[in-house]
């Protein structure tokens, strides 16, 4: 009887079949779920996983990953907490990719893609990368720092792969040193472009838009002319209109274009050439760059706008009239990024011209001037909501907002998945009623049932957090600043939001009681960040003691002392405490 | 008594309420004394002694008549200075305004987060108080840092609003990449305080941006020139690495002397040690009156001898 039973078990589901089935599953969440079913499924899953996603590089170690997954082809790795984007994290905090690369070189020699976000990548690491993976195809460095021209040269020289977007690099000290360098005989920062061998023709994506230096146009032009498969080209501000035209005629089939500077004195001939070049770009889906674009030159792009789904005007200080003239040409627009120079009037134009709009981001021209009355208000947001019922993603920087406006906005657009409202003056109340903005976010969480990401701002009491805890059942990421009236606020969120993964808090008065109310919660989350709150070292130590599988780290800066913990970062980890902490990070 | 005239002289675009009043008074006083209406800044300064009066007060406390004053310190800090003689009178109100604005700014959010209701405030007694102090101190520090890169009327909180600093087409100034953690950085910036005897406020500089004594002394000269008639650090500018004999020349020659507080808390004369050693051990700088520094020199030389 036992033998039969055994045979049944073996023959009913051979592992080859299981592996074949599981290989169709791409989502890492689904794969994680599958791996928990039983040991057989765990094994089958680990043998078939080829895409690795690690949301927090310190939650697991390279050794553990190498042991579990033998066949990885692409890696997505994220490092620093998001608030490092806003200078809240001291330099040299960590998230260095090198140890990971060393492991990849040993265990995954056939690695093809590497996408890093908020990690420190040294030139040495780029060099290692360039030489270790013969089949390497795509590199994406988003908000990474630590490398210079030299590292990029290594990549260009040794890799004939599809360079995938050096997106939003932030080069801290290094490029500054390059600028200051005494010998300025060669192109700084653009030099690496010349290192692509002449035989290299496979480039499909090139994005160097955030490079702050001169780029060698000759090298760029040669590269573009021989890479006929190029579909994404995003240059930096140093490329002018005339040069852009010469590039465009080489690659009219671009799907994504990032222009350089859009202000240059042109001859009539050049003007016409540019118009023609743009009109020939029939496949353009995304357009960005457009530095200093004005009403004189903006009309160039009209001819290329019909197929645009994404228009990024966040480097062009357009005014309402210019935007109003441009938008009617963009009949397929789904995503729009603008600067608040367009004003409420410009946003009215958005509302009337972009019925298919799903994402809107409005950035402030002058975020630090608290007295400034320019920019957008609730009126602009309202106008967009009336005309764009499909709105799902909004990032809105403003100086004034009202509860009523937000209530109406979410009634017009109940499908929000990402609602990031930043009222720039900390603790600013409803500017008409002078009340806290609690009701606004109450409406957002109540009406937008699909809400996954929320950033709150303005004057907020615990009531706002009660609403969030009560209604935001799909919330995964919450960002809080200058808000709350007691520990209860944070507690409501921790107890009420079952899908919460990332909680980042700054400058609130939540204290140890609030921190400890989430004792059972933090292991279900990716991370918690609290800075400039009311936490003490004692409180953090208590948390660390009760929850040994959490890493509780306190970052010392000049506002912390023996008792006050000014910056606290808590995250779950199977790798134990960090082994590479700098002296100012205290692991409790 | 045309206000725009006076404001043009100072180089401001927008007349500000309290300044209008004081200029009116100044001009009226001048007219009464038979002085021509086209006053120069120094004369205006003479009449506005009250404005120039140095006052030290605790954060948050300030003279009532200054409350509304925006001050014309907007263009004071750093690059936009056009007329040095102007800043003698203008920096005070500017500095105070920037300071009070920072505090008021802090008060705004400090109070709003701490005072949702009186009951809550009471309930959070102990920790609340603790929070206030770092916050106020923090804003003070931030104001000092901000004042180097931005006009004083903009009170900056680190990392707020949450805008990425690579966005070039905003007027977002690049806030210092990390907080001032003296001595704890490898590569990175190294902000230290610089004080000058007789000046009402301190400055902060990043030692990493200089590579020699000559550079730093000329930078400091520029920074503090409005407080003296440009005699500080003259001797230092001459030599990159000073020797013993030059020290004595320096002290007897110039009116001001550059000193620094080292790791051990001692006040040393700047210029003794190699530049790298200096940046490693320097905690703060002080521009001292030459007469005070004479007592310093022998000790300094003894110390450097013993270090050698």
From TrEMBL, chain A:
Residues annotated as domain Transport inhibitor response: 70-116
An annotated GO cellular component: SCF ubiquitin ligase complex
All copies of domain COI1 F-box, residue ranges: 11-51
Protein name (record): Transport inhibitor response 1
Domain of life: Eukaryota
UniProt xrefs under InterPro entries: COI1_F-box (IPR041567), F-box-like_dom_sf (IPR036047), Leu-rich_rpt (IPR001611), Leu-rich_rpt_Cys-con_subtyp (IPR006553), LRR_dom_sf (IPR032675), Transp_inhibit (IPR041101)
Gene Ontology biological-process annotations: SCF-dependent proteasomal ubiquitin-dependent protein catabolic process
Organism for this UniProt entry: Salvia splendens (Scarlet sage)
TrEMBL record, chain B:
Keywords: Auxin signaling pathway, Nucleus, Repressor, Transcription, Transcription regulation
Location relative to the cell: Nucleus
Keyword Ribosomal protein listed: no
PROSITE patterns: PB1 (PS51745)
Cited InterPro entries: AUX/IAA_dom (IPR033389), AUX_IAA (IPR003311), PB1-like (IPR053793)
Record-annotated PB1 domain positions: 189-290
Entry's Gene Ontology BP terms: auxin-activated signaling pathway; regulation of DNA-templated transcription
Domain of life of the native organism: Eukaryota
Gene3D superfamilies membership: Phosphatidylinositol 3-kinase Catalytic Subunit, Chain A, domain 1 (3.10.20.90)
Major place of residence: nucleus
One GO cellular component term: nucleus
Family membership: Belongs to the Aux/IAA family.
Subunit structure: Homodimers and heterodimers.
Function according to Swiss-Prot or TrEMBL: Aux/IAA proteins are short-lived transcriptional factors that function as repressors of early auxin response genes at low auxin concentrations.
Protein name: Auxin-responsive protein
Classification of source organism: Eukaryota, Viridiplantae, Streptophyta, Embryophyta, Tracheophyta
């Amino acid at each position: 009887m036992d033998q039969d039973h055994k045979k049944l078990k073996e023959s009913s589901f051979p592992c080859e079949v299981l592996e074949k089935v599981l290989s169709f599953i791409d989502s890492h969440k689904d794969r994680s779920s599958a791996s928990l079913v039983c040991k057989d499924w765990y094994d089958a899953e680990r043998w078939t996983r080829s895409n690795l996603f690690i949301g927090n590089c310190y939650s697991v170690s390279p050794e553990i990953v190498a042991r579990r997954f033998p066949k990885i082809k692409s890696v997505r790795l994220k490092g620093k907490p998001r608030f490092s984007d806003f200078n809240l994290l001291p330099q040299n905090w960590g998230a260095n990719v090198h140890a990971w690369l060393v492991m990849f070189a040993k265990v995954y020699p056939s690695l093809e893609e590497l996408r890093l976000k908020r990690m420190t990548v040294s030139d040495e690491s780029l060099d290692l990368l360039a030489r270790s993976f013969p089949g390497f195809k795509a590199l994406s460095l988003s908000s990474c720092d630590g490398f210079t021209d030299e590292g990029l040269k290594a990549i260009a020289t040794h890799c004939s792969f599809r360079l995938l977007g050096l997106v939003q690099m932030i080069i801290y000290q290094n490029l500054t040193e390059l600028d200051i360098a005494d010998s300025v005989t060669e192109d700084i920062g653009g030099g690496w472009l010349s290192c692509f061998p002449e035989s290299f023709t496979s480039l499909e994506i090139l994005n160097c838009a955030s490079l702050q230096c001169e780029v060698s146009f000759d090298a760029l032009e040669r590269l573009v002319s021989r890479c006929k498969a190029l579909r994404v080209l995003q240059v930096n501000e140093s490329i002018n209109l005339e040069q852009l035209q010469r590039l465009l005629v080489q690659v009219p089939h671009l799907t994504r274009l990032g222009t350089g500077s859009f202000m240059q004195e042109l001859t009539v001939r050049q003007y016409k050439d540019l118009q023609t070049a743009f009109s020939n770009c029939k496949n353009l889906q995304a357009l960005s760059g457009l530095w200093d674009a004005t009403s004189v030159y903006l009309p160039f792009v009209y001819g290329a706008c019909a197929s645009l789904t994404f228009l990024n005007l966040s480097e062009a200080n357009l005014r309402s009239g210019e935007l109003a003239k441009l938008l009617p040409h963009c009949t397929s627009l789904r995503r729009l990024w603008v600067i608040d120079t367009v004003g409420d009037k410009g946003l009215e134009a958005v509302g009337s011209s972009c019925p298919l709009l799903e994402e809107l981001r409005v950035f402030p021209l002058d975020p630090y001037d608290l007295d400034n009355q320019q920019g957008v208000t609730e009126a602009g947001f309202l106008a967009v909501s009336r005309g764009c019922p499909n709105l799902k993603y909004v990032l809105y920087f403003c100086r004034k907002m009202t509860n009523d406006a937000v209530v109406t906005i979410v009634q017009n657009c109940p499908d929000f998945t990402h609602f990031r409202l930043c009222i720039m003056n900390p603790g600013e109340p409803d500017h008409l009623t002078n009340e806290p903005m609690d009701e606004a976010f109450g409406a957002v969480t109540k009406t937008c049932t699909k809400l996954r990401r929320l950033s709150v701002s303005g004057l907020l009491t615990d009531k706002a957090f009660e609403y969030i805890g009560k209604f935001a059942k799909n919330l995964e990421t919450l960002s809080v600043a200058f808000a709350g009236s007691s520990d209860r606020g944070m507690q409501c969120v921790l107890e009420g939001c079952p899908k919460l993964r990332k909680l980042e808090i700054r400058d609130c008065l939540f204290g140890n009681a609030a921190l400890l109310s989430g004792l059972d919660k933090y292991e279900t989350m990716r991370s918690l960040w609290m800075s400039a709150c009311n936490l003490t070292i004692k409180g953090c130590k208590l948390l660390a003691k009760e929850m040994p599988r959490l890493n509780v780290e306190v970052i010392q800066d000049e506002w912390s002392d023996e008792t006050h913990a000014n910056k606290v970062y808590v995250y779950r980890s199977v790798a134990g405490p960090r082994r590479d902490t700098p002296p100012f990070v205290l692991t409790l | 008594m045309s206000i725009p005239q006076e404001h043009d002289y100072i180089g401001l675009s927008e007349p500000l309420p309290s300044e209008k009043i004081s200029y009116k008074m100044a001009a009226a006083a001048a007219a009464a004394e038979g002085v021509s209406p086209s006053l120069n800044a120094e004369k205006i300064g003479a009449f506005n002694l009250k404005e120039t009066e140095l006052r030290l007060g605790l954060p948050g406390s300030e003279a009532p008549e200054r409350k509304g004053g925006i001050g014309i310190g907007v263009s004071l800090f750093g690059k936009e200075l056009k007329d040095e003689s102007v800043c003698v009178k203008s920096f005070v109100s500017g500095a105070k305004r920037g300071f009070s604005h920072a505090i008021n700014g802090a008060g705004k959010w400090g109070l709003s987060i701490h005072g949702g209701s009186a009951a809550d405030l009471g309930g959070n007694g102990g920790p609340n108080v603790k929070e206030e102090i770092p916050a106020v101190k923090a804003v003070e520090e931030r104001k000092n840092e901000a004042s180097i890169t931005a006009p004083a009327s903009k009170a900056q909180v680190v990392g707020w609003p949450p805008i990425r600093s690579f966005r070039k087409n905003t007027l977002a100034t690049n806030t210092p990449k990390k907080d001032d953690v003296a001595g704890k950085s490898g590569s990175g910036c190294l902000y230290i305080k610089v004080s000058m005897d007789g000046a009402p406020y301190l400055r902060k500089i990043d030692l990493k941006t200089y590579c020699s004594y000559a550079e730093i002394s000329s930078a400091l000269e520029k920074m503090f020139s409005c407080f003296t008639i440009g005699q500080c650090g003259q001797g230092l500018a001459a030599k990159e690495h000073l020797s013993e004999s030059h020290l004595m020349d320096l002290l007897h020659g110039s009116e001001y002397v550059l000193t620094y507080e080292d790791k051990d808390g001692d006040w040393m004369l700047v210029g003794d040690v190699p530049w790298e050693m200096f940046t490693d051990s320097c905690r703060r700088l002080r521009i001292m009156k030459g007469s005070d520094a004479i007592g310093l020199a022998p000790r300094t030389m003894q110390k450097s001898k013993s270090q050698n």
